[in-house]
Amino acid sequence: MIILAVNAGSSTVKLQVIDTAQDRLLGKTLVECKGITHDEAIARGLEELHSPHIEGVGHRIVHGGDRFSEAVLIDESVIRDILELAEVAPLHNPVHVAGIRACLHLLPGIPQVAVFDTAFHSTIPPAAHTYALPRYLVNRYKIRRYGFHGTSHRYLTQRFAAIHGRPPSDFNLITVHLGNGCSACAVERGRAVDTTMGVTPLEGLVMGTRSGDIDPALVYRLMEWENFDVATIDHLLNNSSGLLGISGLSNDMRELLEHERQGSPHARLAIDVFCYRIRRYVGAFYGILNGADAIVFSGGIGENQPAIRARVCRDLDALGIQLDEVANAGCKGGEADLSARGARTRVWTIPTNEELLIARDTAALIASRGSAC
Fold first, then answer.
1. pLDDT band with cut points at 50, 70 and 90 for residue 10
2. Cβ atoms within 10 A of the Cβ of 138, count?
3. Domain count, the chain
4. CA distances from 242 to 212, 215, 248, 253 (A)
5. Could you tell me the strand order of the sheet in which 191-195 lies?
6. 19, 23, 117, 213: which one is catalytic?
């Protein structure tokens, strides 16, 4: 089936056309939305792709809340639900809906499917997803750990199992998605049981510009000390913190590694904090899983920065984690087992492919609905 995978953001629209019968990429493009509507951006992208007949459209949706635990065919009620969840994902869900409406207009009659980043994490048990807040607030605002990057973590889980010729239920994995946004996931027998991001993508690991975990009391202390309002605090924690905030130099790991080579103590500290936070969660998730078969690195940093993988895995011998230094140093952007011979817990790098999984989900749902008619 020929599927158009759509990732609509506020400033760009990413499009891929995938033949799911062969898992083959037929074309991809990225269109800037500056000065144009999502209708115009997607129309331009479709012209650039010169794609064959599209049989379905799969949309990446960041937040499905507790309403969506799997992909769904899009209708007006689904669109309403996605918009209602904009309260917890104000930067993402409204622009996803703009992308949906654009595709409904440009590709009338073609089935449209929503694939949710939060869906993979819907299996996280209450002990892991519950915050210790008053129950009336939790119930009123549906507060829980939702987690994000779920499509990436699910792809890594499925791909690791496929490489080994076995089902995902045979493995316990710690998947680590490291890009400008970062998260880790504990996967027990193919199902997510914990993850680092929370109600929003701000919690957890240090990221490019997001703080990750902080003492919550700091929020109101900063508001008091600096007379910050809510919008200023939100921008501070999401856009001015993380690697950029610590280093004062950049949120780009490539640039920070170069600054470190040139002797910058601030770049070094930013990288050390980044890697330390990952190590902390690897250790915690290893305990939650009662052992892991592998750590799987992915994302722009996880796939392409051997130095970061090495620093994360350093001195984790007690967990059975040992890198082959030569294999690690030689791997940038590929699929590879980076473990030392005989290591009990394997270390892998697998490039993520969220669009392929979106296309597969879309094709499978359309096919199942067609066969049911």
1. confident
2. 14
3. 2
4. 7, 14, 10, 11
5. 191-195, 182-188, 172-178, 294-298, 346-349, 336-337
6. 117
Structural domain range at position 179? 166-349
Q: Let me know whether 104 and 216 are in one domain.
A: no
Instruction: Clarify whether residues 294 and 363 are in a common domain.
Output: no
Q: Are residues 108 and 198 in the same domain?
A: no
Q: What is the pLDDT of residues 37-51, one digit of tens each?
A: 888 999 999 999 987
Residue 371 has pLDDT above 60, yes or no: no
CB of 85 within 8 A of CB of 137? no
Residue 160 lies in a domain: no
Output the pTM of the full model.
0.94
The per-residue DSSP string of 59-72 comes to: EEES--TTT-SS-E
At 213, which amino acid appears?
Answer: D
For the cut 50, the answer to whether the pLDDT of residue 373 exceeds it is no
Token pair belonging to 21 = 């019968």
Model pLDDT for residues 14-25, shown as the tens digit of each residue: 999 999 999 999
Residue 157 belongs to some domain of the structure:
no
- Concerning whether 39 is annotated as a catalytic residue, the answer is no
Contact between 233 and 241 under an 8 Å Cβ cutoff? The reply is: no
Confidence grade of residue 225 (pLDDT, cut at 50, 70, 90) = very high
127 & 261 share domain:
no
Coil, strand or helix at 180:
coil
Query: Which domain CATH number covers 187?
Result: 3.30.420.40
Instruction: Specify whether 171 is located in the same domain as 287.
Output: yes
CA-to-CA separations, 129 to 25, 237, 357, in angstroms, rounded: 36, 22, 25
